[in-house]
Amino acid sequence: MDKNRVKGAVKEATGSLKEAAGKLTGNNRLKMKGAAEKVEGKILTKVGKAKDAIRNALR
């Protein structure tokens, strides 16, 4: 498993938490930061999956 997949999953989870906390407190800035972090996590996860697929194809 590629390290980007792990980092992506962690970023996605923390982004979701920040987004939820922003919604609960009415803090739009925190909500937007959380949403951006969540997207970044999804991108990292997809990059990690692609790297894994390439690595497995070369074996």
Salient structural properties:
single chain, 59 residues, mainly alpha, 90% helix, rod-shaped
Describe this structure in words.
- By secondary structure, this protein is mostly helical.
- It has 2 helices and no strands.
- The protein has helices at 3-25, 28-57.
Any chance you could write out the topology, listing elements then pairs?
Blueprint: H1 3-25, H2 28-57
Helix pairs in contact: 1-2
- Oligomeric state: single chain
Basic shape: rod-shaped
Most strands sheet: none
Estimate the strand proportion.
under 5%
Pick out the low-confidence regions.
none
Number of strands: 0
Structural class: mainly alpha
Helix content: over 70%
Mean pLDDT: 96
Distance between the termini: 14 Å
Helix/strand order, N-terminal first: HH
Q: What is Rg? A: 14 Å
Question: How would you concisely characterize the structure shown here?
Answer:
With 59 residues, the chain is mainly alpha-helical.
